[in-house]
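Q&A log
Question type: sequence-to-structure
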Amino acid sequence: MIKFEFVGLRYGVGPEVLSDVNFTLEPGSFHFLTGASGAGKTSLLSLMYLGRKPTRGLVSMFGQNINKLERKQLWSLRQRIGVVFQDFRLLPHLSAFDNVALPLRIMGRPEKETRNNVGELLEWVGLGDYKNALPQTLSGGQQQRVAIARAVIGRPKLLLADEPTGNLDDEIGFRLMNLFEQLNRMGTTIVIATHNNAIMEKFGHSRLILEMGSMRVEETRSSLRRKMEGVY
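Response status: OK
Response body:
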């Protein structure tokens, strides 16, 4: 699904924010991305959702070297990726319903199917009564749930989430983690950037740990058991 080989990233002429990053994510795996503030988590996610290309090294996504892809090819790959941004990036002129429906409409799904799926998902995340609300009228936590619903509505092959439970209470946070677990069981590869140790301990997936721009992978007993069983 994803392979990084000796990847480095710098902005302009500054020092590298990522340096010699090496890892492979298997299809259907689930990982937490963690590390201190400033360690490079958001920069790493930007490479994974094809928001930028590496300064050096090789990034392969879905079996293709992204360094060699043209803009049209990158756009095609992005259709397989769902992203939950830390700043939500909801379209302010669209209702919660239309923000969530947007990926399905871009994919050309039938409107009846779109309305049924979006309505059901908004109910599930506790926003059934807010489907007509504009983003600016919603609280931060509500906006975050809209952003998560939009990211998962199309059942992406890869889901990337930057602190998706950061503005949510524990009950909603764990409920949304269960949604991610369900997506993962259906085959979606998931990477969640988080500082929430309670969530990482409870769900027990392997950890991609960034330290000063470099990465190490830390397996847990749960993640090792899943690998032995052939379930990432």
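Response note: The helical segments are 41-48, 71-78, 96-106, 111-124, 140-152, 170-185, 197-203, 221-228.
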